[in-house]
C-alpha cells in the first residue's frame, strides 16, 4: 500500500515546517519551540475547563480538567497522557485531543502534564502519570467523576505511559482501571539504534519518510533513559512486563506507515495471550501523529473514531452529554 497523495503532502508539510527529532542539528529547545508554534487546531467547546495542580513524587504535577456537564451526575473519567517522545508536548499542544475526547465520549477528561526529558529522565514521566491517576481516583467527587469508571488513554509516548500505569495500578493496589486506549503506543524502548534483526519489521520498513522516524525514536530514547538498559524495565517498555494477566481491557490503534506499528500490534497480541480482552485497529494509509488531526485530514478520523467508540462502550456511555 502507498500513501494517498494528500497524506504525503500533509506529512511533507509537517516535516518541512521545523526541526525534527533525529535531525543532526536538533536540540530540545528548538524542537519544543517549533511544536508550540504550530497553528492551533479547532476543537470543541467544553462546559468546564480548568487547570489544577496535583501532588506528585517530585512536586506538583499540572493537569487540565475537562467536564462536559459539570452540573449533572458524576461521569466516567479518562486520564489522558500526551505524546511527544517524553521530550515535547504539554497541556496546550494536546488541548484539542483532550477536548475531542471529552466532547465525543461524554466523559470527563483529565490531561496530565508529566515531567519531560532530558531535564527529568526515566522514570519521572511514568511516576507522574501514576501519581496523577491515583489522585484522580481519590478525588473523583471533586472532579464530578465516577471512580468505578476510570480509563487511561494516550498517544505515542503517552500510550506507553497509559499501558505502564495500567500495569502499575494492577500491581500497586489500585485504583482499578476499567479500560486502556493506546494509540500507536511506545511499548518497547529497547533496540535502538535499530538493527537488522529487530523483531519489529516496521522499524525498518517505516523507519523514515513518514513523520516519526526510527532515528527520531533513537533520539527520544536517548533523552529519556538514563542508560539503554532501562529499556528492559516494564515502565519504559510495557511489552517486557513479566506478566500481563489481569490487566484492563484494551484497544490498541496502530497506523500502516508508522515505525511503532509492529510493537503496538505485538503488545495487543501479548495482552490477548495473557487473557486480556484486547482489540487492535490498524488505520490503513495512516501515519504516526495522526490522532487528533481529523479536522485537517479525513484519514485521521479513522484513528479517532474507534477510540471514541471503545471508550463510550467500555465506560457505559450511550451518547455524549452536555
From TrEMBL:
UniProt keyword annotation of Iron-sulfur present: no
Ranges of residues in domain Alpha/beta hydrolase fold-3: 78-291
A single GO molecular function term of this UniProt record: hydrolase activity
Region (Disordered): 1-22
Catalytic residue positions: 156
Keywords, sorted A to Z: Hydrolase
EC number(s) reported in the record: 3.1.1.-
SUPFAM superfamilies the UniProt entry points to: alpha/beta-Hydrolases (SSF53474)
Pfam families xrefs: Abhydrolase_3
UniProt KW Hydrolase keyword: yes
Family affiliation: Belongs to the 'GDXG' lipolytic enzyme family.
Protein name: Acetyl esterase
